[in-house]
Design a protein that fits this description.
heterodimer, A: alpha/beta, six-stranded mixed sheet, three-stranded antiparallel sheet, 10 strands, 54% helix, 14% strand, disordered N terminus, B: alpha/beta, 9 strands, disordered C terminus, G_SEPTIN_dom (chain B), Septin3 (chain B), cell division (chain B), nucleotide-binding (chain B), cell cycle (chain B)
Chain lengths: 452, 372
């Protein structure tokens, strides 16, 4: 029932005091309820050399065994491996995606190492942008894959940052919230650690790398966040094995000279990291990703495509108009290309046609030639046939003539024989007739054969 | 920081007349990865299995409290139905236009005007910017045809304003939300049925905004008359295909549906408004004093104001805002973006912009196939 002093300072809204309990103080509760139903999404990117303890730290951080396998040192290029898990604690469901770099820092030539990481981050932003620009979109169902936090694992050399680290962090600081951590911190003594941290921070500042600062504007958490900002980078030790200390099983690493307890704040900063990353600032990390890094990406991308908010006369131009103009341009371009393709097609067709005509003509020629040959042969054969026919005709004529002759001669012989044989026996006559017939026939035959 | 665990704060003073929506499982599909065992909510000292994921609820709540909330309610109805009084009763302060801008005499404007007044109110650390949008002149003229048009235009203008801001390149961190979340429509207590004006208005506007119909000045109806009237109204709404809030198609799961079905059986709420307190049984209560008795506004035996207040403010406010932003606004956006992009053959493309255009010919080819 108190009068409100407006931190927002809306000029056209007047402060008002309520004279009774209205009940909209349950609004945050309703909001949280809705988010709990939907579930939360958190994506962590772990960058570090192979074997520096990224997977182990993730296992320790989220108190589960994520079933990672060791990667080899012989990867030709840096790859990114993303795995999504569903975690649940009390009634909060978290969709956690852990992206690990594989082969980072293993190559002989490390110039391209950071590029794959940058590309991956950009791809996630791009897919969100695509979804946001769609006409029919479903943003609240969308599985947000943008990287919310990037844990950069620094090797515990004790001296300073490697140049690869500096270059990579510089490229990533405007795209993602970077939280540097010193890995395998149980190899550094306390005093060395202190010096190492100071060196790292001063190098980051002098190179202009902007790492993620825990927010200090909210009174409830500003004190702890400011304190933590001074302890960056966190020196962490990860372990999934448990060792018995006193009468409890704690996560620790057992050495001959002692036991390093992961959750002991004197031994390493693991508890602080977990608190900062998950308990206190998870929502802020997500918000920064969306409102700062994603907006920057979106602005750059849209400007690169030629969209502006104001046209050359500094009058506000809506995205619609710019889009219309681009669209006309694009359509014009398309039409032109279509014309080109059509012309090319026509030309090809013509070429093909001429080829085919050529072939046709050739074939025609051949055909004619063959036809000629054929007709020549035919005429030759015809001639031969005619001559043959002629010969057959002459032969048959001759045969007929010969037969006629034979018939006549037979008759005369027969008459002569008759007269003779009236005196002789008829048998003899027959014989003689036969003989003479035979002779005549023979003669005739001989004549015929001679003529053939 | 001490224990990081978050607890759901339920205000003990809040009397909720139906159960809260329990967090039920949404349609998130679980990836085929081994699920770690569910952890208990215990976070005593030395409990090393606690990670602290549920602390995000507390973080969210903190962020929401810091940002504050916005609510825009529009009230529509003939003059004299007690709209302003009801607003004042709902928010227990003088939020209506009449209380703020004192008019020398009541006059009905020649055309329907849209007047909005904003207030910053705070309760238990929760800050809200409440905007009440009044529509004097609605239904008061002789010829009331197309009286819904200025209202429809206003609502669409708010959507348009939000859309323009959203598609800007340099856009604000938090886009100011002036979209109408809820439209309360006042039905005069005739006791008979819906009038043509009511049907016309509600059927047109239920497509673009959440409509909550209320029976105004319900103290003129006896309980039987009230029930009969409500039934006729519900039948009229059903017959004309009018979907009032809570809309059936937006029920998320069976829990939701159960609660919303109970509400749907009670709409429209028969309300009585009053901003004057009277002494009843030793307590000071808001009510209307007449010769035959005092009508207590917050007594559910007398009128259904308490149900309306609970629905609108205590349990479903976030839901109303969500439906406005994720459904009504999206419908408007789709329509608006399609009307400038429709292809000559009438087929609208699915993507507004393919950012790969910058990449050259191959991408253009892809867009070409997209758009065909």
């Amino acid at each position: 029932m108190t009068t409100s002093d407006i931190a927002q300072g809306d000029k056209n809204a007047r402060p008002l005091s309520l004279s009774g309990h209205v009940g909209f103080d349950s609004l945050p509760h309703q909001l949280v309820n809705k988010s709990t139903c939907q579930g939360f999404c958190f994506n962590i990117l772990c960058i570090g050399e192979t074997g520096i303890g990224k997977s182990t730290l993730m296992d320790t951080l989220f108190n589960t065994n994520f079933e990672n396998f060791e990667s080899s040192h012989f990867e030709p290029k840096v790859k990114l491996r993303a795995q999504t898990y569903d975690l649940q604690e009390s009634n909060v469901r978290l969709k956690l995606t852990i992206v690990n770099t594989v082969g980072f820092g293993d190559q002989m030539n490390k110039q391209e190492s950071y590029q794959h990481v940058v590309d991956y981050i950009d791809t996630q932003f791009e897919s969100y942008l695509q979804e946001e620009l769609k006409i029919k979109r479903s943003l609240h169902n969308y599985h947000d894959s943008r990287i919310h936090a990037c844990l950069y694992f620094i090797a515990p050399s004790g001296h300073s940052l490697k140049s690869l680290d500096l270059v990579t962090m510089k490229k990533l600081d405007s795209k993602v919230n970077i939280i540097p951590v010193i890995a395998k911190a149980d190899t550094i003594s306390k005093s060395e650690l202190h010096k190492f941290k100071i060196k790292i921070m001063s190098e980051l500042v002098s190179n202009g790398v902007q790492i993620y600062q825990f927010p200090t504007d909210d009174e409830t958490v500003s004190k702890i966040n400011t304190a933590m900002n001074g302890i960056l980078p966190f020196a962490v030790v990860g372990s999934s094995e448990e060792v018995k200390i006193g009468n409890k099983m704690v996560k620790a690493r057992q050495y001959p000279w002692g036991v390093v307890q992961v959750e002991n704040e004197n031994h390493c900063d693991f508890v602080k990291l977990r608190e900062m990353l998950i308990c206190v600032n998870m929502e802020d990390l997500r918000e920064q990703t969306h409102t700062r890094h994603y907006e920057l990406y979106r602005r750059c991308k849209l400007e690169e495509m030629g969209f502006t908010d104001t046209n050359p006369e500094s009058k506000p131009v809506s995205l619609q108009e710019t889009y219309e103009a681009k669209r006309h341009e694009f359509l014009g371009d398309l039409q032109r290309r279509e014309e080109e393709m059509r012309q090319m097609f026509v030309q090809r067709v013509k070429e093909k046609e001429t080829e085919l005509k050529e072939a046709e003509r050739e074939l025609q020629g051949k055909f004619e030639q063959l036809k000629r040959l054929h007709s020549e042969e035919k005429s030759k054969l015809d001639e031969k046939r005619r001559s043959l026919e002629d010969e057959i005709n002459t032969f048959s004529k001759k045969k007929a003539a010969a037969e006629l002759l034979q018939g006549q001669s037979f008759n005369t012989n027969a008459n002569l024989k008759k007269d003779k044989d009236r005196k002789k026996s008829p048998e003899m006559e027959a014989k003689d007739v036969n003989l003479t017939c035979d002779e005549a026939t023979n003669q005739n035959h001989n004549c015929c054969f001679r003529n053939l | 920081m001490a224990a990081c665990g978050a607890e759901m704060h339920i205000n003990p003073e809040m009397e909720v007349l139906w159960s809260e929506v329990k967090p039920s499982h949404s349609n998130m599909s679980a990836p085929p990865h081994p699920q770690p065992p569910t952890k208990g909510a215990s976070h005593g000292a030395g409990d090393f299995s606690y990670v602290g994921i549920d602390a995000i609820l507390e973080q969210m709540r903190r962020k929401a409290m810091k940002q504050g909330f916005e609510l825009n309610i529009m009230i529509v109805g003939q003059s004299g139905l007690g709209k302003s009084t009801l607003m004042n009763t709902l928010f227990k302060s003088k939020v209506s236009r009449k209380s703020v801008v004192s008019t020398p005499e009541e006059r009905i404007p020649k055309t329907i005007e849209i007047k909005s007044i904003s207030h910053d109110i705070e309760e238990k650390g929760v800050r809200m910017k409440l905007t009440v949008i009044d529509t004097p002149g609605f239904g008061d003229h002789i010829n009331n045809e197309n009286c819904w048009q200025p209202i429809m235009k206003f609502i669409n203008d708010q959507y348009e304003q939000y859309l323009q801001e959203e598609i800007n390149i340099n856009r604000k961190k938090r886009i100011p939300d002036s979209r109408v979340h809820c439209c309360m429509y006042f039905i005069p207590p005739t006791g008979h049925c819906l009038r043509p004006l009511d049907v016309e208005f509600m059927s047109r506007l239920s497509k673009v905004v959440n409509i909550v119909p209320v029976i105004a000045k319900a103290d003129t109806l006896t309980l039987e008359e009230r029930d009969f009237f409500k039934q006729t109204i519900r039948e009229g709404l059903r017959a004309n295909g009018i979907d009032v809030y809570p809309q059936e198609e937006f029920d998320e799961d069976s829990d939701d549906r159960m609660i919303n079905d109970k509400i749907r059986e009670m709409i429209p709420f028969a309300v009585v408004g009053s901003d004057q307190e009277y002494q009843v049984n030793g307590k000071r209560l808001l009510g209307r004093k007449t010769k035959w008795g005092t009508i207590e506004v917050e007594n559910i035996a007398h009128c259904e104001f308490a149900y309306l207040r609970d629905l609108l403010i205590r349990t479903h406010m976030q839901n109303i805002k969500d439906i406005t932003s994720s459904i009504h606004y999206e419908v408007y956006r789709v329509r608006r973006l399609n009307e400038t992009n429709a292809q000559p053959n009438g087929q609208p493309p699915n993507t507004l912009v393919n950012p790969q255009q910058a990449n050259g010919v191959a991408a253009q080819h892809q867009v070409l196939t997209h758009e065909m």
